[in-house]
Amino acid sequence: MRKPLLITIIILAVLLLIPAVSFIRWAFQEKKPIDVVILDKTVPTLDRLGHRSFIYTLTNARFVKGDKGGSYSASKDYYGFEPLRPVREKQFRKKDFRLTELIDLAENNDALYYTDTYGVFFNDWYQGIKKTRRSRKLYGGLNNNDYLLMVEMKRRDKLVILEYNTFDYPTAPLEKFKTEELLGITSTGWTGQYYRSLDTLSQHGAPAWMPAQYRKQYREPWTFTNAGVVLLNEHSIIVLEEGKHLASAMPMIKTSSTHAERFSLPATVAFTNSFDIIDAGSNNVLSEFVLNTTPAGDTLLFANELAPVFPAVIQEPLVQRTYYFSGDFANNDIPFWTAKLKNIQKGAKTLLHSDNENDPKRFFWLYYKPLITSIFGEYYADKAGK
Fold first, then answer.
1. Is the pLDDT score of 81 beyond 90?
2. Angle at 270 between CA 269 and CA 272, to 5 degrees
3. Residue 252: which of 366, 125, 101, 348 has the closest Cα?
């Protein structure tokens, strides 16, 4: 056999052997049974990106369903909006909590995670139609049964995690008020999003409907072309452009050394998904969003009673089993086939993200995955009395 061919065969064998060994090591890890109620109302495609990375994290850490001991499924093990095949027929099913089953759900489950309650709208579902800021709602918003299940879980000191947009449109004002009161949080009504370009004609630019809203409010044309952050509430828009209002456009999440050590988090990580701005009240603030504003940006924020630093992750201070993530944390496009490989995060640094602080792919691997793993690990250890 020729030497080059032999070397090629050896290299291929090693490349196949490494993931095989990693899978075997994952399979023989101790299973940690924990029953989780997952709610995702924003599932306009079969990718299920709104909760898939959460399922990935549970699977990789070997958290399994308590009744059967199997891994969680992103396509089956959630409540909310369920697209049906074939997708071209645009059929869907709503899987909601019934009032009569709330007590049983709270008794028989260990944790509750609302990854996204925003919902699915006409323009999301019937793609190809010209987008506006809002179209007719097909399904979405946190409802009274969603709220009551939170209440029952908290009464039993179960683990409760909620994410971005729990309080905002299309959640009704009454459910918003009750949920804020339950969590000790006040929503400002402002949400934000980073854009690689504020040019609406760019492939990764701001949405086409924004200039009209901006002109209506400021009586000025939309001339923004650099990267930036757009903040919105019910009636207003704020545009923070890199080079004028921001020294650097990408929002960062910063974590103090104490909380970074506890949850295995980096001191700083970039975040490019949507976020909301809240007042944490008396809750513990574990991480903060930081906008790198210039004096012009500070002035613009101050005029709207906002600041460049605001909560990213908060925790209820007494029992410490209720969390709110002020960003769309669970929405990450990650290669799910790697979920059943032990220590995949070591290879991720080389293959799936870079060392560049501004690389948005780092968020899942360095922040979301260790945060969820740590929260569930602590809860499981307490539950098991370890």
1. yes
2. 145
3. 366
